[in-house]
Input
Amino acid sequence: MKLRVTDREGHDHEIDAIEGWRVMEIIRDHAMQTPALAIKAECGAALACGTCHVYVDADWVDRLVPPTAEETERMEEDVFALEDNSRLSCQILMTEELDGLHVTLAPGSEP
Ligand code: FES
Output
């Protein structure tokens, strides 16, 4: 299972993903070998920071479980450069259906 991540410099990375893991956790895990993928994710998925902000590729937006009211509220309060395809990557769980998901690290997610 793969996850495609575009870093903040515009470079694409195809990384191995694990079913059931949060997209944020997968990106953070790979950042140890690939510093360009470093993501702040300050609250560790507690939905309290917004620093795991990503943009979801247009082809994938409708294939994700929609954001909860809590995720939407957090993005509205804590995320700048908010776009229609913004999501908090700690709230996206990898499933077989998301094999190949493409996200881009958003401004404000840098450590
Ligand atoms: S890591 Fe803090 S909201 Fe996702």
Remarks:
- The longest helix spans residues 69-78.
